[in-house]
Design brief:
Elements lengths: L5 E2 L3 E5 L5 H8 L18 H8 L8 E7 L5 E9 L5 E8 L8 H15 L4 E7 L3 H10 L2 E10 L4 E11 L4 E4 L5 H14 L6 H8 L1 H12 L5 E8 L2 E11 L5 E9 L8 H14 L5 E5 L3 H8 L4 E5 L5 E5 L1
Parallel strand pairs: 5-6, 12-13
Antiparallel strand pairs: 1-2, 2-3, 3-4, 4-5, 6-8, 7-8, 9-10, 10-11, 11-12, 13-15, 14-15
Bound molecules: coenzyme A (COA).
Length: 327
């Protein structure tokens, strides 16, 4: 199976050609570079395997790709993708030449595969990774994949078996990334920018208060407490942060999830992203004890947004702001 070249700023992904064989096999059969691949090292190659490698360009059960430099076409690595029979899941693999590790190339390439799978209306992407493959596990976690199950795989013909994770990426909803309290600084700047630019706070005095250490300190204390902990999260799609939210679920009370802030970054607005983000937040918080939702809002657009989920007005808060709840 073949594709039209996928191109991003730094890397391009194109179908494998016979001329790529040496570059690919040097990497896959290398002891270090191919350590966690199912391919054998050179000494364990047999005719069956050799034959499979010699026909990669023609296979009809999946895609073999080369990752190259978008500017000069220099080969950087490989990836592959195998759709399931009903077209809902695609299983991927990837390998970057060890000369180029830790430059964000796999991040770029897998992000492109995520976009490509989404364009084909796939629902999920899976990848099997040896548990001890810290680089690959780290990459997938960073991109928003989650462990779906644990299993094992063998290196071909070598009698080596790895315990492995099957990671899954859900293309239908954004992933949630929790922000640890130690990283609040970076989040805070984006948060204040949003509050000001979206005119959630307009009064100079309010802006000063929200920027100040007192408010931030209160949030930090609430993030550290044992019960009814406050959460700051990013929404992520294809490894990119597309929005954020700040909420507390009062599990020690009646399970109210109070959403203090919720926003989609401006460049991702206007195509249902907000809906997908809130649905993702609902699923995530429900799994963690939320029973119903409350938000205060007086901006017309925001009120319309919340009402579209079924939020209904329910009195006012202590600042006389209208409250909305969703049961
Ligand atoms: C896994 C692999 C593809 C990563 O490629 P890469 O281009 O170096 O990855 P990136 O630079 O995009 O790194 C992305 C993230 O992966 C994680 N990561 C990468 N290398 C890591 C390492 N040596 N240790 C721990 N985490 C690592 C980090 O989370 C990193 O994000 P950060 O740089 O923001 O911390 C590469 O190590 C590789 O080709 N390995 C051999 C083949 C392989 O194992 N393929 C996967 C089979 S499942």
């Amino acid at each position: 199976m073949r594709i039209d070249k996928l191109i991003s700023d730094r890397v391009a992904i194109r179908s494998y050609e016979v001329e790529d064989k040496e570059f690919c096999t040097d990497m896959w059969f290398d002891e270090e570079n191919g350590k966690y691949l199912s391919d054998p090292t050179k000494e364990y190659l047999d005719d069956v395997y050799q034959e499979a490698v010699d026909t990669l360009q023609d296979v009809d059960y999946g895609y073999y790709f080369v990752i190259e430099d978008a500017k000069d076409g220099k080969r950087l690595g490989t990836c592959c993708a195998f759709p399931d029979d009903n077209g809902t899941n695609i299983d991927i693999g990837y390998c970057i030449n060890k000369k180029y590790w830790r430059n964000g190339l796999a991040t770029d390439a897998v992000s492109m595969l995520i976009d490509w799978a989404r364009q084909q209306s796939m629902k999920t992407i899976t990848a099997e990774v040896a548990k001890e493959n810290a680089a690959s596990c780290g990459l997938l976690k960073k991109l928003g994949f989650n462990v779906k199950k644990e299993t094992t795989f063998k290196k071909y013909n070598m009698g080596i078996e790895y315990d492995s994770y099957i990671f899954e990426y859900n293309l239908e909803e954004p992933a949630i990334e929790e922000i640890p309290v130690e990283n609040i600084g970076e989040f805070w700047d984006a948060h204040i920018k949003y509050l000001v630019e979206d005119e959630i706070i307009t009064d100079e005095e309010d802006i000063e208060y929200f920027k100040g250490l007192e408010y931030r300190g209160t949030i930090e204390i609430h993030m550290k407490r044992g019960i009814d902990r406050h959460h700051l999260i990013y929404f992520k799609e294809a490894g990119k942060r597309i929005g954020a939210a700040s909420y507390t679920t009062y599990k020690s009370e009646d399970g109210k999830c109070y959403i203090l802030d919720f926003w989609v970054f401006p460049e991702y607005r206007g195509n249902g992203t907000g809906h997908r983000c809130f649905e993702a937040l609902k699923k995530y918080t429900k799994a963690n004890g939320a029973k119903y939702y409350e938000i205060n809002s007086e901006k017309e657009d925001s009120v319309r947004f919340w009402k579209s989920f079924g939020f209904v007005e329910n009195g006012k808060d202590e600042w006389d702001m209208p409250l909305f709840i969703l049961n």
